[in-house]
Amino acid sequence: MRPTRISSLFPRRADAFKLCRLCQHRAIRTSARLLAAPSPQTPAKSSPAPVGQSPASYKAPTKNDGFSLETLGRPIGFHRPPLPGKNSGEDTRSLKERRDDFVDWGNHLQRRKELTKAVSKPYFRDFTNVQYERGKSFLANPRVFRADRALFFPNFVGTTLADLSKPADTTLVLLNRISLVSVYSSDWALKQVQTWTSEKQNPDLCRILQGSRGIAQPVEVNIETNRLKYFILSLFKGRLRNERAQEDWDKYFFVRKGITDEIRENVGIMNAKVGYVFLVDGACRIRWAGSGDAQEEEKHFLNKGLKTLISETAGSAKTNPKAQAA
Question: For the region Disordered, what residue ranges are annotated (predicted)?
Answer without folding.
Answer: 34-64
